[in-house]
Amino acid sequence: MNYWDAATPVGDLRLAGDEAGLREISFHAAALALPSSPCWRRAEEPFRLVLEQLSDYFSGARREFDLPLAPVGTPFQLDVWRMLRTIPYGETVTYGEIAGRLGRPRAQRAVGAANGRNPLPIVIPCHRVVGSDGSLTGFGGGLPMKRRLLALECGHLPALRMA
User: Is the pTM of this model over 0.85?
Assistant: First the structure.
């Protein structure tokens, strides 16, 4: 597994992946808590495309990511994460809407749990999911970061630059 720590406008992100694709994006504080593995190799080159697309996203020039992704999860989690990728840039949906789109209208809590376990935040836009009343709910990077990402996408923030 390769990894790289990237400085971004929303803080440091740890990227992890292998030949199958990008497997994880961790907010730096969470990444430091991960057990280190002697099998992990620090390397920037495998993440060139990811870094380029993140830079484009933060500058306001990219609305969708086109990357090889390889998240690991249950079949239900993978379904939820695929559905998250269909939420248009700058829009939000509720957990209930996602559950309905999956044909499981009573699975709002399960959708919330899967959303909370999304290993690829930003790229798989879990920040675009809100509570049933439109309120901002949990986000691995914290609610201020979720608010900032949504503001960027809605044009309420000037384009951000990579650090």
Answer: yes
Tally Cβ neighbours within 10 Å of residue 122. 21
Beta strands in the chain (DSSP E): 2-8, 11-18, 21-27, 41-42, 93-94, 129-130
Residue of 61, 58, 100, 65 lying closest to 79 (CA atoms): 100
- Residue 38 structure tokens: 């002697």
> 26 to each of 13, 47, 149, how far by Cα in Å?
6, 14, 16
Bridge partners for 22 per DSSP: 17, 69
d(CA 154, CA 59): 13
Q: SS3 of 112, please?
A: helix
Q: List, by residue number, the catalytic residues.
A: 126
CA 163/CA 12 separation, integer angstroms: 9
Residue type, 129: V
- Per-residue pLDDT of 113-126, as tens digits, reads 999 999 999 999 99
